[in-house]
Amino acid sequence: MAEITVQDLSKELRDAITRLDLTEGLEESGIVTRIGDGVAWVHGLRSAGYNEVLEISTASGVVEAFALNLMEDEIGAILLGADQAVSAGNTVRLKGEVLSVPIGEELLGRVVSPLGEPLDGGAPIKTKQRGLVEREAVGVMGRKHVSEPLMTGIMAIDAMFPIGRGQRELIIGDRQTGKTAIVLDTMINQARQKTGVINVYVAVGQKLSKVARLVDRLKSEGVMDQTIVVVAGPSDPASLLYLAPYAGTAMGEYFRDNGKHALMIYDDLTKHAVAYRQMSLLLRRPPGREAFPGDVFYLHSRLLERSAKLSDALGGGSLTALPIIETQAGDISAYIPTNVISITDGQIFMETDLFYQGIRPAISAGLSVSRVGGDAQTKAVKSVSGNLKLGLSQFREMASFAQFGSDLDDATKQQINRGQRLTELLKQPQYQPMSIWEQVVSMHAVTSGLFDSVAADKIKDAQAALLAKLWTDHKDDMRTLSKGDKKFGDNEELVALVEKTAKSVAKGFEG
Ligand SMILES: Nc1ncnc2c1ncn2[C@@H]1O[C@H](COP(=O)(O)OP(=O)(O)O)[C@@H](O)[C@H]1O
Ligand SMILES: [Mg+2]
User: Fold this and answer.
1) pTM above 0.85?
2) What is the Cα–Cα distance from 59 to 198, expressed in whole angstroms?
Protein backbone atom coordinates (compact mmCIF):
# COMPACT_ATOMS: atom_id res chain seq x y z
CA MET A 1 0.00 0.00 0.00
CA ALA A 2 2.84 2.34 0.86
CA GLU A 3 4.41 1.57 -2.53
CA ILE A 4 1.34 2.63 -4.44
CA THR A 5 1.23 5.96 -2.65
CA VAL A 6 4.82 6.71 -3.52
CA GLN A 7 4.29 5.77 -7.17
CA ASP A 8 1.35 8.12 -7.35
CA LEU A 9 3.58 11.03 -6.53
CA SER A 10 4.93 13.47 -9.05
CA LYS A 11 8.51 13.05 -10.24
CA GLU A 12 9.52 16.24 -8.45
CA LEU A 13 8.28 14.88 -5.16
CA ARG A 14 9.94 11.53 -5.74
CA ASP A 15 13.23 13.29 -6.37
CA ALA A 16 12.87 15.30 -3.18
CA ILE A 17 12.30 12.11 -1.23
CA THR A 18 15.28 10.42 -2.84
CA ARG A 19 17.52 13.38 -2.01
CA LEU A 20 16.35 13.37 1.57
CA ASP A 21 16.84 9.65 1.84
CA LEU A 22 20.45 9.99 0.63
CA THR A 23 21.39 13.01 2.79
CA GLU A 24 19.51 12.58 6.06
CA GLY A 25 17.63 9.31 6.00
CA LEU A 26 13.92 8.89 6.42
CA GLU A 27 14.03 8.18 10.14
CA GLU A 28 13.98 11.70 11.51
CA SER A 29 12.89 13.65 8.48
CA GLY A 30 10.21 13.44 5.84
CA ILE A 31 8.47 15.17 2.97
CA VAL A 32 4.90 16.39 2.76
CA THR A 33 3.20 14.43 0.02
CA ARG A 34 -0.38 15.64 0.28
CA ILE A 35 -2.22 18.28 2.23
CA GLY A 36 -5.85 19.16 2.86
CA ASP A 37 -8.53 19.71 5.52
CA GLY A 38 -5.89 20.41 8.15
CA VAL A 39 -4.18 17.05 7.60
CA ALA A 40 -0.69 16.63 6.17
CA TRP A 41 0.52 13.29 4.83
CA VAL A 42 4.20 12.82 5.31
CA HIS A 43 6.50 10.29 3.67
CA GLY A 44 9.33 9.21 5.93
CA LEU A 45 9.65 10.16 9.63
CA ARG A 46 9.85 6.48 10.46
CA SER A 47 10.79 7.11 14.06
CA ALA A 48 7.87 9.47 14.76
CA GLY A 49 5.71 8.44 17.71
CA TYR A 50 2.05 9.02 18.43
CA ASN A 51 1.34 12.68 19.29
CA GLU A 52 4.88 13.77 18.45
CA VAL A 53 5.26 17.33 17.30
CA LEU A 54 6.51 17.83 13.74
CA GLU A 55 7.99 20.96 12.23
CA ILE A 56 7.09 21.60 8.61
CA SER A 57 9.39 24.07 6.84
CA THR A 58 7.26 26.13 4.48
CA ALA A 59 8.03 29.12 2.30
CA SER A 60 6.59 31.38 5.03
CA GLY A 61 8.14 29.76 8.07
CA VAL A 62 7.70 26.73 10.27
CA VAL A 63 4.24 25.25 10.80
CA GLU A 64 3.78 22.70 13.56
CA ALA A 65 1.75 19.54 13.35
CA PHE A 66 1.34 16.44 15.44
CA ALA A 67 1.53 12.85 14.30
CA LEU A 68 -1.57 10.72 14.71
CA ASN A 69 -1.85 8.08 12.06
CA LEU A 70 1.37 6.12 12.00
CA MET A 71 1.72 3.80 9.06
CA GLU A 72 4.70 1.95 7.72
CA ASP A 73 5.87 4.43 5.17
CA GLU A 74 3.61 7.37 5.68
CA ILE A 75 2.10 9.25 8.59
CA GLY A 76 -0.98 11.39 8.90
CA ALA A 77 -0.34 14.56 10.88
CA ILE A 78 -2.76 17.19 12.15
CA LEU A 79 -1.66 20.78 11.51
CA LEU A 80 -1.58 23.11 14.47
CA GLY A 81 -1.43 26.19 12.27
CA ALA A 82 -3.04 27.36 9.05
CA ASP A 83 -2.70 24.91 6.16
CA GLN A 84 -2.38 27.57 3.41
CA ALA A 85 1.37 27.84 3.85
CA VAL A 86 2.02 24.10 3.72
CA SER A 87 2.49 22.43 0.35
CA ALA A 88 3.63 19.11 -1.05
CA GLY A 89 7.42 18.89 -1.12
CA ASN A 90 7.95 20.75 2.18
CA THR A 91 10.43 19.05 4.47
CA VAL A 92 9.33 17.86 7.89
CA ARG A 93 11.39 17.23 11.02
CA LEU A 94 10.70 15.80 14.43
CA LYS A 95 10.73 18.54 17.01
CA GLY A 96 11.78 16.00 19.63
CA GLU A 97 8.80 16.42 21.92
CA VAL A 98 5.24 15.24 22.24
CA LEU A 99 2.30 17.58 22.15
CA SER A 100 2.01 19.78 25.24
CA VAL A 101 0.13 22.87 26.39
CA PRO A 102 0.96 25.68 28.83
CA ILE A 103 -0.12 24.85 32.38
CA GLY A 104 -0.06 26.75 35.66
CA GLU A 105 -1.71 29.40 37.80
CA GLU A 106 -1.15 31.94 35.01
CA LEU A 107 -4.09 30.44 33.12
CA LEU A 108 -6.60 31.23 35.88
CA GLY A 109 -9.15 33.80 34.82
CA ARG A 110 -8.40 33.23 31.14
CA VAL A 111 -10.31 31.99 28.11
CA VAL A 112 -7.92 30.00 25.91
CA SER A 113 -7.77 27.80 22.83
CA PRO A 114 -6.90 24.11 23.22
CA LEU A 115 -3.29 25.15 22.57
CA GLY A 116 -3.39 27.60 25.46
CA GLU A 117 -3.48 30.74 23.34
CA PRO A 118 -5.58 33.60 24.69
CA LEU A 119 -9.04 34.03 23.16
CA ASP A 120 -10.12 36.76 25.55
CA GLY A 121 -8.14 39.59 24.00
CA GLY A 122 -5.94 39.64 27.09
CA ALA A 123 -2.17 39.64 27.43
CA PRO A 124 -0.09 36.73 26.12
CA ILE A 125 0.04 33.90 28.61
CA LYS A 126 3.50 33.03 29.85
CA THR A 127 3.60 29.92 31.98
CA LYS A 128 6.66 28.34 33.54
CA GLN A 129 5.51 24.84 32.75
CA ARG A 130 3.95 22.80 30.02
CA GLY A 131 1.85 19.69 30.45
CA LEU A 132 1.40 16.73 28.14
CA VAL A 133 -1.87 16.68 26.27
CA GLU A 134 -1.94 12.89 26.43
CA ARG A 135 -0.76 11.45 29.67
CA GLU A 136 -0.88 8.09 31.32
CA ALA A 137 -3.54 7.92 34.06
CA VAL A 138 -2.33 7.59 37.66
CA GLY A 139 -2.04 3.92 38.68
CA VAL A 140 -3.93 2.23 41.48
CA MET A 141 -1.12 2.75 44.01
CA GLY A 142 -1.14 6.48 43.40
CA ARG A 143 -4.83 6.75 44.13
CA LYS A 144 -6.95 6.95 47.20
CA HIS A 145 -10.56 6.31 48.03
CA VAL A 146 -12.86 9.24 47.17
CA SER A 147 -13.64 10.80 50.54
CA GLU A 148 -14.18 14.56 50.30
CA PRO A 149 -17.36 16.13 48.96
CA LEU A 150 -17.49 18.17 45.78
CA MET A 151 -20.64 20.08 46.53
CA THR A 152 -22.64 21.35 43.58
CA GLY A 153 -24.95 23.54 45.66
CA ILE A 154 -27.84 21.87 43.84
CA MET A 155 -29.83 20.25 46.60
CA ALA A 156 -31.20 17.38 44.51
CA ILE A 157 -27.63 16.34 43.67
CA ASP A 158 -25.88 17.00 46.97
CA ALA A 159 -28.65 15.22 48.89
CA MET A 160 -29.44 12.26 46.64
CA PHE A 161 -26.47 11.79 44.27
CA PRO A 162 -23.51 13.23 46.16
CA ILE A 163 -20.30 13.70 44.21
CA GLY A 164 -16.87 13.21 45.75
CA ARG A 165 -13.58 14.81 44.77
CA GLY A 166 -11.91 12.53 42.23
CA GLN A 167 -15.21 11.10 41.02
CA ARG A 168 -16.51 11.05 37.44
CA GLU A 169 -20.20 11.86 37.26
CA LEU A 170 -21.91 12.10 33.88
CA ILE A 171 -24.55 14.77 33.21
CA ILE A 172 -26.79 13.36 30.49
CA GLY A 173 -29.96 14.49 28.75
CA ASP A 174 -31.47 15.94 25.60
CA ARG A 175 -30.68 19.46 24.45
CA GLN A 176 -32.20 22.28 26.51
CA THR A 177 -32.77 20.27 29.65
CA GLY A 178 -30.47 22.29 31.90
CA LYS A 179 -27.19 20.33 31.64
CA THR A 180 -24.97 23.37 31.26
CA ALA A 181 -26.98 25.13 33.98
CA ILE A 182 -26.01 22.36 36.41
CA VAL A 183 -22.28 22.69 35.78
CA LEU A 184 -22.40 26.47 35.77
CA ASP A 185 -24.08 26.49 39.18
CA THR A 186 -21.53 23.97 40.41
CA MET A 187 -18.72 26.33 39.36
CA ILE A 188 -20.49 29.26 41.05
CA ASN A 189 -20.85 27.19 44.21
CA GLN A 190 -17.08 26.66 44.42
CA ALA A 191 -16.67 30.43 44.70
CA ARG A 192 -19.63 31.09 47.00
CA GLN A 193 -18.64 28.37 49.45
CA LYS A 194 -14.96 29.24 49.11
CA THR A 195 -14.04 25.62 48.50
CA GLY A 196 -10.84 26.58 46.68
CA VAL A 197 -11.71 24.12 43.90
CA ILE A 198 -10.39 25.26 40.50
CA ASN A 199 -12.87 24.99 37.62
CA VAL A 200 -11.74 24.01 34.13
CA TYR A 201 -14.64 24.39 31.72
CA VAL A 202 -13.96 22.86 28.30
CA ALA A 203 -16.43 23.98 25.62
CA VAL A 204 -16.37 21.59 22.67
CA GLY A 205 -18.32 22.74 19.62
CA GLN A 206 -20.63 25.01 21.65
CA LYS A 207 -21.94 28.16 19.97
CA LEU A 208 -19.52 30.96 20.80
CA SER A 209 -22.38 33.25 21.85
CA LYS A 210 -23.35 30.67 24.49
CA VAL A 211 -19.79 30.39 25.75
CA ALA A 212 -19.50 34.18 25.92
CA ARG A 213 -22.67 34.36 28.03
CA LEU A 214 -21.32 31.69 30.34
CA VAL A 215 -18.01 33.53 30.76
CA ASP A 216 -19.88 36.78 31.50
CA ARG A 217 -21.83 35.01 34.19
CA LEU A 218 -18.68 33.50 35.69
CA LYS A 219 -17.20 36.99 35.81
CA SER A 220 -20.23 38.65 37.35
CA GLU A 221 -20.46 35.91 39.97
CA GLY A 222 -16.79 36.35 40.87
CA VAL A 223 -15.90 32.82 39.78
CA MET A 224 -13.53 33.59 36.91
CA ASP A 225 -10.51 34.05 39.20
CA GLN A 226 -10.57 30.35 39.99
CA THR A 227 -11.57 29.22 36.52
CA ILE A 228 -9.96 28.36 33.17
CA VAL A 229 -12.18 28.23 30.10
CA VAL A 230 -10.94 26.22 27.12
CA VAL A 231 -12.84 26.78 23.90
CA ALA A 232 -12.95 24.95 20.58
CA GLY A 233 -15.85 26.43 18.62
CA PRO A 234 -18.08 24.86 15.97
CA SER A 235 -16.08 26.47 13.14
CA ASP A 236 -12.67 25.38 14.46
CA PRO A 237 -11.01 22.43 12.74
CA ALA A 238 -12.06 19.02 14.05
CA SER A 239 -8.50 18.53 15.32
CA LEU A 240 -8.89 21.37 17.84
CA LEU A 241 -12.22 20.01 19.04
CA TYR A 242 -10.56 16.65 19.42
CA LEU A 243 -7.69 18.13 21.43
CA ALA A 244 -9.72 20.42 23.70
CA PRO A 245 -10.71 17.93 26.45
CA TYR A 246 -7.17 16.50 26.71
CA ALA A 247 -5.58 19.94 26.74
CA GLY A 248 -8.01 21.14 29.42
CA THR A 249 -7.27 18.04 31.45
CA ALA A 250 -3.55 18.79 31.33
CA MET A 251 -4.35 22.24 32.73
CA GLY A 252 -6.46 20.68 35.50
CA GLU A 253 -3.82 18.07 36.33
CA TYR A 254 -1.40 20.83 37.23
CA PHE A 255 -3.59 21.68 40.23
CA ARG A 256 -4.26 18.03 41.09
CA ASP A 257 -0.54 17.32 41.08
CA ASN A 258 0.19 20.26 43.35
CA GLY A 259 -2.07 19.04 46.15
CA LYS A 260 -5.05 21.11 45.03
CA HIS A 261 -8.50 20.24 43.79
CA ALA A 262 -9.79 20.85 40.30
CA LEU A 263 -13.10 20.23 38.60
CA MET A 264 -13.11 19.30 34.90
CA ILE A 265 -16.23 20.00 32.88
CA TYR A 266 -16.47 18.65 29.33
CA ASP A 267 -19.37 20.32 27.54
CA ASP A 268 -19.93 18.12 25.66
CA LEU A 269 -18.43 14.75 24.78
CA THR A 270 -21.07 14.01 22.14
CA LYS A 271 -19.66 16.81 20.01
CA HIS A 272 -16.17 15.59 20.89
CA ALA A 273 -16.97 12.14 19.50
CA VAL A 274 -18.40 13.68 16.34
CA ALA A 275 -15.22 15.72 15.85
CA TYR A 276 -13.14 12.60 16.36
CA ARG A 277 -15.14 10.78 13.73
CA GLN A 278 -14.57 13.59 11.25
CA MET A 279 -10.88 13.58 11.98
CA SER A 280 -10.71 9.82 11.65
CA LEU A 281 -12.34 9.96 8.25
CA LEU A 282 -9.77 12.51 7.14
CA LEU A 283 -7.03 10.27 8.47
CA ARG A 284 -8.71 7.30 6.87
CA ARG A 285 -8.95 5.28 10.04
CA PRO A 286 -11.53 2.54 9.65
CA PRO A 287 -14.93 3.61 10.96
CA GLY A 288 -16.48 1.22 13.48
CA ARG A 289 -19.95 0.59 14.74
CA GLU A 290 -22.63 3.19 13.89
CA ALA A 291 -20.00 4.76 11.65
CA PHE A 292 -17.92 5.61 14.71
CA PRO A 293 -14.38 4.36 14.96
CA GLY A 294 -14.12 1.27 17.12
CA ASP A 295 -11.84 3.12 19.46
CA VAL A 296 -14.28 5.87 20.39
CA PHE A 297 -14.65 4.01 23.66
CA TYR A 298 -10.92 4.33 24.25
CA LEU A 299 -11.17 8.00 23.25
CA HIS A 300 -13.25 8.80 26.31
CA SER A 301 -11.96 6.21 28.75
CA ARG A 302 -8.38 7.43 28.48
CA LEU A 303 -9.66 10.95 29.08
CA LEU A 304 -11.82 10.22 32.12
CA GLU A 305 -9.25 7.90 33.70
CA ARG A 306 -7.15 10.96 34.41
CA SER A 307 -9.65 12.09 37.03
CA ALA A 308 -8.52 10.80 40.39
CA LYS A 309 -8.13 11.37 44.08
CA LEU A 310 -4.38 11.12 44.63
CA SER A 311 -2.74 9.25 47.50
CA ASP A 312 -1.18 11.17 50.39
CA ALA A 313 2.25 10.31 49.03
CA LEU A 314 1.35 12.14 45.82
CA GLY A 315 0.02 15.15 47.71
CA GLY A 316 -3.65 14.22 48.08
CA GLY A 317 -4.89 16.48 45.27
CA SER A 318 -7.87 15.60 43.14
CA LEU A 319 -9.36 15.94 39.69
CA THR A 320 -13.13 15.51 39.48
CA ALA A 321 -14.89 15.16 36.13
CA LEU A 322 -18.37 16.18 35.05
CA PRO A 323 -18.59 15.10 31.41
CA ILE A 324 -21.77 16.09 29.58
CA ILE A 325 -23.50 13.95 26.95
CA GLU A 326 -26.38 15.17 24.81
CA THR A 327 -28.90 12.47 23.98
CA GLN A 328 -31.48 12.30 21.20
CA ALA A 329 -35.05 11.82 22.48
CA GLY A 330 -33.76 10.54 25.81
CA ASP A 331 -32.04 7.55 24.22
CA ILE A 332 -29.26 6.54 26.59
CA SER A 333 -28.71 3.22 24.83
CA ALA A 334 -27.02 4.77 21.78
CA TYR A 335 -23.34 3.96 21.36
CA ILE A 336 -21.70 7.07 22.80
CA PRO A 337 -24.00 7.46 25.84
CA THR A 338 -23.59 3.77 26.69
CA ASN A 339 -19.82 4.09 26.47
CA VAL A 340 -19.57 7.08 28.73
CA ILE A 341 -22.09 5.63 31.20
CA SER A 342 -19.88 2.57 31.47
CA ILE A 343 -16.73 4.57 32.25
CA THR A 344 -18.18 6.99 34.81
CA ASP A 345 -19.12 6.49 38.44
CA GLY A 346 -22.74 7.42 37.91
CA GLN A 347 -24.99 9.79 36.01
CA ILE A 348 -27.32 12.69 36.61
CA PHE A 349 -30.10 12.08 34.12
CA MET A 350 -32.01 15.15 32.95
CA GLU A 351 -35.58 14.52 31.79
CA THR A 352 -37.24 16.64 29.13
CA ASP A 353 -40.73 15.94 30.54
CA LEU A 354 -39.76 17.18 33.97
CA PHE A 355 -38.21 20.29 32.45
CA TYR A 356 -41.45 21.17 30.65
CA GLN A 357 -43.54 20.43 33.74
CA GLY A 358 -41.51 23.14 35.41
CA ILE A 359 -39.60 20.74 37.62
CA ARG A 360 -36.19 22.38 37.30
CA PRO A 361 -33.46 21.26 37.64
CA ALA A 362 -35.07 18.41 35.69
CA ILE A 363 -33.14 15.68 37.47
CA SER A 364 -34.66 12.22 37.26
CA ALA A 365 -34.71 10.81 40.79
CA GLY A 366 -35.29 7.30 39.46
CA LEU A 367 -32.65 7.11 36.72
CA SER A 368 -29.82 9.07 38.32
CA VAL A 369 -27.17 7.40 40.44
CA SER A 370 -23.87 8.19 42.12
CA ARG A 371 -21.79 5.13 42.89
CA VAL A 372 -18.88 6.43 44.89
CA GLY A 373 -19.97 9.73 46.40
CA GLY A 374 -21.87 8.31 49.38
CA ASP A 375 -18.79 8.06 51.56
CA ALA A 376 -17.78 11.56 50.61
CA GLN A 377 -21.13 13.14 51.37
CA THR A 378 -21.14 16.01 53.84
CA LYS A 379 -22.20 14.51 57.15
CA ALA A 380 -24.86 17.08 57.97
CA VAL A 381 -26.49 16.72 54.55
CA LYS A 382 -26.32 12.94 54.71
CA SER A 383 -28.03 12.90 58.09
CA VAL A 384 -31.20 14.43 56.67
CA SER A 385 -31.19 13.16 53.07
CA GLY A 386 -32.25 9.56 53.80
CA ASN A 387 -35.84 10.63 54.44
CA LEU A 388 -35.85 12.70 51.28
CA LYS A 389 -34.89 9.75 49.08
CA LEU A 390 -37.37 7.47 50.81
CA GLY A 391 -40.19 10.01 50.57
CA LEU A 392 -39.58 10.56 46.88
CA SER A 393 -39.40 6.89 45.96
CA GLN A 394 -42.62 6.16 47.88
CA PHE A 395 -44.19 9.08 46.09
CA ARG A 396 -43.22 7.75 42.66
CA GLU A 397 -44.80 4.41 43.52
CA MET A 398 -48.00 5.89 44.96
CA ALA A 399 -48.48 8.55 42.33
CA SER A 400 -48.93 5.88 39.67
CA PHE A 401 -51.76 4.28 41.70
CA ALA A 402 -53.32 7.56 42.60
CA GLN A 403 -54.27 8.34 39.02
CA PHE A 404 -56.67 5.38 38.98
CA GLY A 405 -58.70 5.63 42.14
CA SER A 406 -59.99 8.35 44.41
CA ASP A 407 -60.57 6.31 47.58
CA LEU A 408 -57.05 6.27 48.91
CA ASP A 409 -56.33 5.42 52.51
CA ASP A 410 -54.91 8.07 54.77
CA ALA A 411 -51.38 6.69 54.81
CA THR A 412 -51.23 6.78 51.00
CA LYS A 413 -52.67 10.28 50.87
CA GLN A 414 -50.09 11.37 53.38
CA GLN A 415 -47.24 9.91 51.30
CA ILE A 416 -48.52 11.62 48.18
CA ASN A 417 -48.81 14.93 50.00
CA ARG A 418 -45.31 14.62 51.32
CA GLY A 419 -43.96 13.65 47.90
CA GLN A 420 -45.56 16.68 46.26
CA ARG A 421 -43.92 18.93 48.84
CA LEU A 422 -40.55 17.27 48.40
CA THR A 423 -40.79 17.69 44.64
CA GLU A 424 -41.53 21.39 45.14
CA LEU A 425 -38.68 21.71 47.59
CA LEU A 426 -36.15 20.33 45.10
CA LYS A 427 -37.02 22.96 42.51
CA GLN A 428 -34.16 25.40 42.44
CA PRO A 429 -33.68 28.49 40.30
CA GLN A 430 -30.49 28.96 38.31
CA TYR A 431 -27.51 30.82 39.81
CA GLN A 432 -28.62 30.09 43.36
CA PRO A 433 -26.51 27.24 44.66
CA MET A 434 -27.36 26.47 48.27
CA SER A 435 -24.97 26.31 51.17
CA ILE A 436 -24.91 23.38 53.56
CA TRP A 437 -27.06 24.89 56.29
CA GLU A 438 -29.67 26.00 53.78
CA GLN A 439 -29.92 22.49 52.38
CA VAL A 440 -30.05 20.80 55.78
CA VAL A 441 -32.67 23.09 57.28
CA SER A 442 -34.89 23.04 54.18
CA MET A 443 -34.81 19.26 53.93
CA HIS A 444 -35.52 18.79 57.60
CA ALA A 445 -38.50 21.15 57.54
CA VAL A 446 -40.22 19.13 54.81
CA THR A 447 -39.15 15.56 55.61
CA SER A 448 -40.06 15.86 59.26
CA GLY A 449 -43.59 16.97 58.35
CA LEU A 450 -43.29 20.51 59.71
CA PHE A 451 -44.39 21.89 56.35
CA ASP A 452 -47.18 19.34 55.77
CA SER A 453 -49.72 22.05 56.46
CA VAL A 454 -48.21 24.37 53.86
CA ALA A 455 -49.89 24.16 50.44
CA ALA A 456 -47.56 22.51 47.91
CA ASP A 457 -47.42 25.61 45.72
CA LYS A 458 -46.35 27.68 48.72
CA ILE A 459 -43.47 25.41 49.75
CA LYS A 460 -40.79 27.53 48.04
CA ASP A 461 -42.15 30.68 49.71
CA ALA A 462 -42.19 29.00 53.10
CA GLN A 463 -38.66 27.73 52.54
CA ALA A 464 -37.44 31.22 51.67
CA ALA A 465 -39.12 32.66 54.76
CA LEU A 466 -37.59 29.98 56.98
CA LEU A 467 -34.09 30.59 55.62
CA ALA A 468 -34.42 34.35 55.93
CA LYS A 469 -35.62 34.14 59.52
CA LEU A 470 -32.94 31.70 60.63
CA TRP A 471 -30.21 33.75 59.01
CA THR A 472 -31.43 37.00 60.54
CA ASP A 473 -31.81 35.61 64.04
CA HIS A 474 -29.22 32.85 64.27
CA LYS A 475 -26.30 33.54 61.94
CA ASP A 476 -23.69 31.93 64.14
CA ASP A 477 -25.63 28.71 64.59
CA MET A 478 -26.17 28.52 60.84
CA ARG A 479 -22.49 29.11 60.15
CA THR A 480 -21.62 26.28 62.52
CA LEU A 481 -24.15 24.02 60.82
CA SER A 482 -22.59 24.93 57.46
CA LYS A 483 -19.31 23.34 58.49
CA GLY A 484 -21.26 20.17 57.82
CA ASP A 485 -19.07 17.94 59.96
CA LYS A 486 -21.77 16.81 62.41
CA LYS A 487 -25.08 15.04 62.04
CA PHE A 488 -27.96 17.50 62.24
CA GLY A 489 -29.59 15.47 65.03
CA ASP A 490 -26.47 15.66 67.21
CA ASN A 491 -27.20 19.16 68.38
CA GLU A 492 -30.61 18.87 70.01
CA GLU A 493 -30.82 22.54 70.84
CA LEU A 494 -30.24 23.48 67.24
CA VAL A 495 -32.86 21.00 66.04
CA ALA A 496 -35.36 22.42 68.52
CA LEU A 497 -34.58 25.94 67.35
CA VAL A 498 -35.02 25.06 63.67
CA GLU A 499 -38.25 23.14 64.33
CA LYS A 500 -39.74 25.96 66.37
CA THR A 501 -38.92 28.47 63.64
CA ALA A 502 -40.25 26.14 60.92
CA LYS A 503 -43.54 25.68 62.78
CA SER A 504 -44.10 29.39 63.18
CA VAL A 505 -43.18 30.03 59.53
CA ALA A 506 -45.56 27.26 58.39
CA LYS A 507 -48.48 28.99 60.16
CA GLY A 508 -48.07 31.97 57.85
CA PHE A 509 -48.47 29.78 54.75
CA GLU A 510 -51.36 27.52 55.68
CA GLY A 511 -54.34 27.17 53.42
N1 LIG B 1 -33.00 25.34 37.34
C2 LIG B 1 -33.45 26.07 36.34
N3 LIG B 1 -34.47 26.94 36.52
C4 LIG B 1 -34.91 27.69 35.52
N5 LIG B 1 -34.42 27.67 34.26
C6 LIG B 1 -33.43 26.84 33.99
C7 LIG B 1 -32.88 25.99 35.02
N8 LIG B 1 -31.90 25.26 34.46
C9 LIG B 1 -31.82 25.63 33.17
N10 LIG B 1 -32.73 26.58 32.87
C11 LIG B 1 -32.92 27.23 31.55
O12 LIG B 1 -33.18 26.23 30.58
C13 LIG B 1 -32.55 26.52 29.34
C14 LIG B 1 -31.67 25.35 28.92
O15 LIG B 1 -30.63 25.17 29.84
P16 LIG B 1 -29.18 24.71 29.40
O17 LIG B 1 -28.41 24.50 30.64
O18 LIG B 1 -28.61 25.62 28.40
O19 LIG B 1 -29.55 23.31 28.72
P20 LIG B 1 -28.60 22.25 27.98
O21 LIG B 1 -27.20 22.54 28.37
O22 LIG B 1 -29.10 20.93 28.50
O23 LIG B 1 -28.89 22.41 26.53
C24 LIG B 1 -31.75 27.80 29.57
O25 LIG B 1 -32.50 28.88 29.07
C26 LIG B 1 -31.63 27.89 31.06
O27 LIG B 1 -31.55 29.23 31.50
MG1 LIG C 1 -25.57 23.07 27.20
Assistant:
1) yes
2) 43
